[in-house]
User: Fold this.
Amino acid sequence: MNAVNAADTSFIIFATALVMLMTPGLALFYGGMVRRKNVLSTTVHSYAAMVIVSLQWVLIGYTLCFGKDFAGIIGNFQFLGLHGVGFLPNPDYAATIPQSVFMLFQLMFAIITPALISGAIAERMKFLAFAIFILLWSTLVYDPIAHWVWGAGGWLRTLGALDFAGGNVVHISSGISALVVAIVIGKRKKLKSITPHNLPMTLLGAGILWFGWFGFNAGSALAVNGVALNAFITTNTSAAAGALAWSICELVVRKKVSTLGIASGLVVGLVAITPGAGFVSPLSSILIGGIGGALCFFCVTVVKQKFGYDDALDAFGCHGIGGIWGGIATGIFASKAINSAGANGLIYGNIKLLGIQLIAILATVAYSAIMTFIILKVLGKFMTLRVTSDEESNGLDVSQHGEEAYGGIDI
Amino acid sequence: MDEKFSKIDIITSSSKFDELKEALNGIGISGMTVSNVLGCGIQKGHKEFYRGLALDINLLPKIKVEIVVCDVPVDLVVETAKKVLHTGKMGDGKIFIYDVKNIIRISNGAEGRDSLRYDD
Assistant:
């Protein structure tokens, strides 16, 4: 009899659907923050990721991440075209659920990661260039990093780096890459006067992200167990702490709490807890989310202004910085009592884990930045990445897609 | 035909619109065109914040009420509007008065004074 556990399997199938919904949620979150004339363009970046990565994954993505290890850096072609991926569990990753469920669950992470990058280049990147960019990025950046951190034999996993649900793999990689793309593509015109066109849409997106994140973090336990439930609790708690911290910062600096601030703070709280959700205690998660909220508030409101890069929707400010803090926080607050498969962090007297986390963070940052830069430069030889000045003024919905989101006059 | 038609634009904040409409109905004006507009004048705006961006907003939402009259005296319309909308503070709005060359009702082709009459 095979070792498939019905409860675990049902849970991970459900978690897969939850994480899937996060990408449309991201589309709403980002869409509401851009100008009306670019809302379709921004929305479709997320849906393009769903389409492109879904196909890339079954052909080559899954095997590069989780195939038999080669030199600690990449998986082999064992599972090319999902060959050998079926109902039988893969004990390297999840011994009680079918490998096909594990594969599908992981696909949803692979999808949302490049979608996050779209936040940095909103309102000015050519759609076809973006589409090809994410195909290359998923294959050359996401898949290797996922293998290093989660793959059996991956060098960061072997080193002992802890990344429960993708702080490194999803948030740091996309956040740093987003910064690189934002700088390479350049700033939008008339930056100082761009405001969100539909904040209710953004708030709805944030709520859907919070909801889906339960699948993202709790589901990463890959089973119904104490660790999964711990992750569920820390995820929710960190989101709340992040929102509160950002709100307090706003109250102090601007005397008003904004809805965009609450939405941003909760997302940052969720990002910060992602690497440690199944390793830290609920009380630690209050600090993790809270400090993350304040740190990212500072990054988004002060640092970005000072350095002048146009990370339009703060993919770097929220996911990059939030993910880096989360990785460090995991090195501080991780507890073997919460998860015996993990390790103890700094507060339990172990500085080794923090050192390993820093190595993992640095490796992710360096590789993401360099590889993304190379991809952009190569791609730029074959096509222009940025729309023309007129196209940017008229809006990308019309220039890239031939559509108007909300129509002209009512007829 | 020596009729004089006048167009009266009233630009004001939306908070008193219902009272204005009722008052205008009371003096015999039942037809008007109302639009949402943004305006600035001497009224101070406010600050808005979106993450790292702080903005001074001085284009404020207002409504614009457009009326064309013939028989109803222009002065009566202006006095009525002022009575309803006046608070003495900035932001009460403005009234503009123009001459109109002709008016045509599309449904029956009536022109001039007849096109404004609704009692047939």
About this structure: Residues 74-85 of chain B form the longest helix (12 residues). The two ends of chain B are 21 Å apart (CA to CA). Chain B has a mean pLDDT of 90. Residues 5-116 of chain B form a domain with the Alpha-Beta Plaits fold (CATH 3.30.70.120).
